[in-house]
Every structure is written in C-alpha cells, then in structure tokens.
From TrEMBL:
Similarity section: In the C-terminal section; belongs to the class-I pyridoxal-phosphate-dependent aminotransferase family.
The keyword Membrane belongs to this UniProt entry's keyword annotation: no
Keyword line: DNA-binding, Pyridoxal phosphate, Transcription, Transcription regulation
InterPro entries: Aminotransferase_I/II_large, HTH_trans_reg/aminotransferase, PyrdxlP-dep_Trfase, PyrdxlP-dep_Trfase_major, Tscrpt_reg_HTH_GntR, WH-like_DNA-bd_sf, WH_DNA-bd_sf
Gene Ontology molecular functions: DNA binding; DNA-binding transcription factor activity; pyridoxal phosphate binding
Full protein name: GntR family transcriptional regulator
All copies of domain HTH gntR-type, residue ranges: 11-79
Species annotation: Planobispora longispora
Short name of any one Pfam family annotated for the protein: Aminotran_1_2
Keyword DNA-binding tagged: yes
Length: 471
C-alpha cells in the first residue's frame, strides 16, 4: 500500500505511519498474510530514518496486527480481522434527472434452477477456442497508439462486407462507427442529433434502457403504442425529432413491423424531418418466416441509423456493437465518441476482424440457429400445453424470448418475485411499459435454457403460476 507523510501534521512521523497501517488492516485494505514493505524500502521511499519505520512495525507487532515470518518478511497477522466499515455518504448528490432513472436489471436476482430471463444466451455455444486464437493473433500487434474513434479501418471493412451479405444493406465502411453495444450507439446518436428538451418517440411497450438513456440526457421519451403491425405511426408526436424502433422483432411483444407500416414510417420521418433508429438486436435468429427488408435498405433519404451488436451473436461481455449512419453524421459521431472514451478496444477489434474475415462468424451463426430454432419451437409448444388457463404466449417469429400475457386477475401480482420459490427466474413485462396500467404477463427467455430442460422449466413455471392465481 502507498504510505504518506505530512510535514505540517502535528502528529509525529511515527504516529502518522502507525495510524495509516493500522487503519488499512482494520478496514481490510491489508488482509491476513499480506506482506508489508521492508522497513529499509519504506524509509528510502519516504525519505525518513529507518528507525522510525522499525519503531512503527514494532508497535504494530506488539499489538498483534503484524508478525515476522522466517524468510517471509513482515506480514499482517490473523489475529485482527477487518472491522465492518460504513463509508460516509458524502456531500454530493445526483441531479433529480439521474436520480429518477431506474436500472433495468434490478428484478429478482436470487438463485434459481431455471433462468428464463430475456437477454441471456447459451454460454456453451460460445466458440471459446476459436475466439482465443483470434485474440492471441490480435495481441501479436504492438499497440502503442490510440485508435481511430470510429473503429479500425479493417474492422469497419469486415463489418461492411458482413452486413451487405447478411442484411442486404448497401453501405461503405466509412458509414460504420464501432461502439460498445447498442446502448452506446444510441447514446452517440442522441448526443449528435438531439438537445435537452427535444422529443423522441419510443415504442410502448419498449426497451426500458433506451428510455432511461434518453431521459438521462434531458430528452422527452414519449411512448408510442404498438399494435399487431408494429408501431402506430399516426400516434407518433408531430414534434418528435427521433423515433426508436425494433422492426424485425419488436421488444418485448415479438411482433414484426409490417411492410406497409415501414413505408409509412419512412414517409412520416421525411415529412417531419426526423431520424429513425433501427435497432436490429436479434434478427439473426429467425425461426418461422423470411425476414422483411431492413428499414435501412428501404431508406432513400438517409434518415435511418441502423444499430446492431454482438451481445446475442457472441457474448454481451465483449461490449462490441456498431451503427451505420449517413455520411454527413459520421464525423460528429466519431468526434463525440472520442470525447467520451476515445476509441474501441484495439485488441478486441483486431480479434473480431480476424473472426469475421476467416469465416468463423458465419459458421458460428449457423450453429446457433441450429440450436435455438428447435428450442424456440419446443418452448412455444410447452407454453401452449402447460400454462394455466388465462395465460398464452404471443405470436413470434424470431429472437430468444417469448412474451406471455396473463389474466387480468394477475395484473397486480409481482409475478417475478412469486416465481422465485419455484426455482424460476423470468422477465418483467410490466417494466417494459411506461404506464403499466393493468398489464399482466411476463417474458420467457430461452437463450440460456438447455433444450433438454425445457419441459421441466415450463412445468415449474406453470406450477408457480397456478399457485399464484389459484387456477
């Protein structure tokens, strides 16, 4: 640990050092067995007499805080364990705007046999050995400089080829900005296009982190209802400067924005001079139908910003994503990115570039689809067969979760909390609404659920629901 002396302190040097080391031991900063610096090294570093340090060590040893070990120097003894410390609250407080925000993952976090929360993926599918080789190859370069804020040229070129082949999007690499996931991408877009007090339209129900992100910037996130065809364009506020949508797999309900509604949304944006953020968070996993064209592909005016990430494809722990923007916005996006955290991690960028260019991403996606599509159908079938009366899964064609609606009598129940005793963790549907009203239901994620455990998991879910509603 670092030791300090203050020549203006009324306490002696011996007392200053003694109290610093003793406080470090009692607080747990120094734990049992931790080795203290030799007295000669401490004296040389602080520019004081060695005898001062040996006097301090002697006092601490006499009181049982430290002890000498043959060949091991001076270490903290086991006699005095750390005392619980309560840090002071401090004189600072968050702004009302930030204090009003709510974390998305503060639902029940207890241990459960079955984790059916959305957003989870199957860790067994992660290509660990291949990714390790790509990382080691990427680390072979000598990284001595900061990188390009928008991302390396090689990664942007690899992403452009992949998006052109997998999404049919027409773009050039210079339109891509590499981000730390979807939230970071939307944060950059909002900083560049919106000002505090501006209005943004978000789907209702929708993805809560995006609402909170916009509100953290002082932006009015207005909920726009969703029906069987997707976002209701006629209900978008006329003064909205940005509209955030999940057209390929609406979060959380699972619907698809119809072709007619897509064109209507693009025309609305053109009339009102607004931007559209298209969050394509899991369209890689189509289970029943051919995907519709991305909004970005239909856009003729340069109003759509396409956002994606590798959280579902590879791992959320990588914190890698991207956005595709009109060229006029890219310089500002890159500049804001640099102001926030300069550039994406260079080693991870290089590893991902190798992973894509060597064809591993395509093979990995085929393997994931082969695992997730049968699991989707199995979960959907079990939900239809086993859920108590009044509960039903909503239609879905893609993704790694299903929304389930429930009877009105269950609207006020804390379903997530009440299912914990039955060994089941689920996602909250109420949390996705700005105004929940009489919403009854929940979200069933199957990304982290092994296929062979589906029947047992849905059986436990049904048992818990029956106990909750008495049906």
């Amino acid at each position: 640990m670092e030791l300090f002396i203050d020549p203006d302190d009324e306490r002696s040097l011996t007392r200053q050092l003694y109290e610093q080391i003793r406080a470090a031991i009692l607080s747990g900063q120094l734990g049992p067995g931790d080795r203290l610096m030799p007295s000669r090294a401490v004296a040389a570093e602080l520019g004081i007499a060695r005898s001062t340090v040996t006097d301090v060590y002697g006092s601490l040893a006499a009181e049982g805080y430290i002890e000498g070990r043959a060949g091991g120097g001076t270490v903290v003894s086991d006699e005095h364990g750390p005392c619980p410390q309560t840090p002071p609250p401090g004189a600072l407080a968050p702004t009302p705007c930030s204090a009003a925000l709510r974390r998305y993952d503060d639902d029940p976090q207890g241990q459960a046999r079955f984790d059916l929360r959305p957003g989870r993926i199957d860790a067994q599918l992660f290509p660990a050995a291949i990714w390790r080789r790509c990382v080691l190859a990427g680390l072979g370069r000598a990284w001595a400089q900061y990188g390009e804020p928008a991302g390396s040229a090689d990664l942007r070129a690899a992403l452009a080829r992949w998006l052109t082949g997998s999404r049919g999007i027409t773009l050039v690499p210079e339109q891509i900005v590499v981000t730390a996931g979807t939230g970071h991408a939307i944060d950059l877009v909002a900083r560049v296009l919106l000002s505090p007090g501006d209005v943004a339209g978000v789907e209702e129900p929708g993805y809560p982190p995006v609402r909170e992100l916009l509100r953290s910037q002082g932006i009015k996130a207005v909920g726009v209802p969703v029906d069987g065809h997707g976002i209701v364009v006629d209900a978008i506020p006329a003064d909205a400067r940005l509209v955030y949508v999940t057209p390929s797999h609406q979060y959380p309900l699972g619907g698809v924005l119809s072709g007619q509604r897509r064109l209507q949304l693009l025309r609305w944006a053109g009339r009102h001079g607004a931007a559209i953020v298209e969050d394509d968070y899991d369209s890689e996993f189509r289970h029943t139908a051919r995907p519709l064209e991305p909004l970005h592909r239909l856009d003729r005016d340069g109003r759509v910003i396409y956002v994606g990430s590798f959280s579902k494809i590879l791992s959320p722990a990588l914190r890698m994503g991207f956005l595709v923007a009109p060229m006029a916005l890219v310089p500002a996006l890159a500049t804001v990115r640099q102001a926030i955290d300069w550039c994406p991690p260079l080693g991870t960028q290089e590893a991902l570039t190798i992973f894509i260019n060597e064809g591993h991403l395509g093979r990995h996606l085929r393997r994931m689809r082969a695992a997730y599509t049968p699991r989707f159908h199995c979960v959907h079938r079990e939900l239809l067969d086993r859920l108590p009366a009044g509960y039903r899964p909503l239609p879905a064609q893609a993704g790694l979760h299903l929304a389930v609606t429930g009877p009105r009598s269950a609207a006020q129940a804390d379903v997530c909390q009440n299912l914990l005793p039955h060994g089941v963790l689920i996602g909250s549907l109420r949390r996705t609404y700005q105004v929940p009203g009489s919403v009854a239901g929940f979200l069933v994620g199957f990304g982290a659920l092994p296929t062979e455990q589906v029947a047992a998991a849905i059986d436990a879910l049904a048992t818990g629901l029956t106990a909750l509603t008495g049906r």
